[in-house]
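Quick start: read one record
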Amino acid sequence: MTMTRPAANKRPPQQKKPSQYSSGMARRLARLNEWMDARPLLDYTMTRTIVLVLAGLGVIMVTSSSMTWSVLDDSSVWAQPLKQGIVVALGLLAFWIALQISPERFRSCASLLMVGSVLLLVAVLVPGIGTGREEVGSQSWIYIGGFQLQPSEIARVAICVWGASILANKNPRRMFELTNGYVPFICVAALCMFLIGAQGDLGMMVSFAIVVAFILVFAGVPWKIISVAAGFGAVLLVAVMAAGGYRSQRFHVYFDALFGHFEDTRGTAFQSYQGFLSLADGSLFGVGLGQSRAKWFYLPEAKNDFIFAVIGEELGLWGGALVITLFTMLLYFGLRTARRAQNQYQALLAAAITTGIVSQAFINIGYVVGLLPVTGIQLPMISAGGTSAVITLGAMGLVASVARHEPDAVSAMQNYGRPMFDRVFFLREPRVVGNAAGTPNQRNIRRQDRRERDYGTPVTARPAPQRRPAPQRRPAARYDGREEVRRAS
């Protein structure tokens, strides 16, 4: 008879505590941050890559969504895509010009840009100059050379540049002092919002107010003041909803969409309802690029305000998730660029422009999927448009320029040379005006002086190595035998 030993009591596997999960996630995030910090050109590379991908996706989707209306309006299926291609090309040119210029140069002309934007906002209200009220209900455009100029788009970028210029290195605890910069900024911002509201463009006014709020938050203004201003804006929106008109109808359609019940699908809720149908038809993988049915005169503004619905229909859930992911990554790397910028002006500039563009994108996506009321705001870099595409791409060029002028990025280019993108597109080495950080080589002193006068000296310029003078040998003393005599004695 064999005796069997009792099985040892096995301890049940210990379950990890939530604190252990959080500590493990913190270690992974720390390693990820170390990996990103070890790549000084990451912000610059990712920012320009995301912008180029969004611009290319926009050209493709505008081509797909505008073919039917292009044939009806211009008797050619390629009329609207060609126009959008020209606009995007101009926007990429503005992107390249912004990369060529140091962010500090824009600071010197920030006041002039802001004054010009205010004058354009006033000019668009003059009868005979501003147009658009009969077509879309808001007088927001000026026709120049066959293109539509929207001054509110320019003003939204101008307030970022000018606000970053006057609020940099200011004390937010003394924001009500006239010499501290906050009072002039709030007054000019309120004037711009009033002028945009007078145009009848409530959606753009809300978007402009969001940009102003972000600038104040990044400048250090307490959240209590921002909350009070937001509450005042909410009261105004309620007043607009109670006043009646088509804006009030948009709010009613919004509440209907939240509960999934549209009352007037052939009237006031027609556009939102068709957008819902487009997203539903797309399902997971979409019906295929160019195969949208909603663009055949079912969905109004398919190439502009509701282009995300066409993306969801043709590319499916994955296409919509791709667009949301790209804008989320743009937000992350834009804020990371602001955190790693050279000074507070550049940090405020990058953070304000990035949050303004990304918030506009999420507002557009939000009202297409029914989470927000329809406001008529375009999807940046994707929707068809003239001024919007050029100004948005130029503004993102400013953010990429700030990323290109990060101290680590400049040091990497000084030591290892410019990346391939900069060499192909003839981008100069990033420099900062007024930073005399190095001693020029005597052989190239004239060329270096000319470069410093035009572009400034590099941030991390090192003194040129100088040869040490050869040590002079003393002439050998004549031997006269006195030393040996001295030793002997």
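The first strand starts at residue 130 and ends at 131.
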